[in-house]
Amino acid sequence: MDQYSWLEYSVAKDAAFCFACRHFLKRGHGFHLEPAFTSNRFNNWWKASASLNSHHESMGQVFAMEGWSEFKQKETSGSKIANMLDKGHSALVMENRKYMKAVMESLGFTACQGIAQRGNREDEQSHNLGNFRELLHVIAKFDPTVDKKLATNPSNAKYTHHDIQNEMFAVMAEMIRKKISDEVRDAECFAVLVDESKYISKKEQISVIVRYLQPESGEVHEFLHFTAADGLDSDSLLASIKHTLSQCNIDIHRCVGQCYDGASVMSGCNNGVQEKFRKEVPQAIYIHYHAHRLNLVLVDCVHNVSAAAEFFETLQML
């Protein structure tokens, strides 16, 4: 019936119910719940007209209809409180994103410039908080959002801790590796350059350089990756090279050239890295790279110039 918009019929139970009372009228509201139209069922059809009219005019049903009407209005136009909460949440999200962008840009800047991220002390009493945090404070002078976040955010939500910095670097590194991997795949072939050296802690590390031609620009690109050296024998060095390429999602079988120094462990024709590499990738031709040849010539020349030899010897001692 059109006059009873709240009326609903269940085919399975062959009974009528009140939609408004079932969903919008609870016992705590202080009105009488009619079980026939809520929890039980109404199927006394010969008394339907009188019963439906009586329920339609009851106070509980009127209250339930008002609740239903308000719900439909909120669904159509949106609740003012909900809208305010939603707008507030959206504004907070935008502020957080703006602040995180400043954090990432600061980290990216210091990394690209090759300068130290952190200072000796980073507590508030320190006069120098390190390059990263000092740069972030410079940005805050011109950006109210960054200034507010640095001043009001709790310490675990400022994203300036060194562990967080390392995590962000890992994310950026993964993004760069993904881009380089795609470029190498588009280039279809590449050459690998490898050298071993010691860093400041006197531990051996391997620098792996992938050299490839970018098809779009026609420019030669090089990608450098450092990895710790588990061993300095040919098998360990080869395993490190393969692991690095695999980590960067670069197919080793697309390598067409390998370039090392003249050390026997690298250039040996029987058990050197280059020979073992070529057994797996036959087209990867070995070349003793020219920069190392030039370096050997310069070192030999310096040894024969007493003033230069003395200068570098003194410098090495210092």
TrEMBL record:
Superkingdom of the organism of origin: Eukaryota
Pfam families: DUF4371 (PF14291)
Cited InterPro entries: DUF4371 (IPR025398)
Residue span, DUF4371 domain: 37-272
The name this protein goes by in its record: Zinc finger MYM-type protein 1-like
The species this protein was found in: Scomber scombrus (Atlantic mackerel)
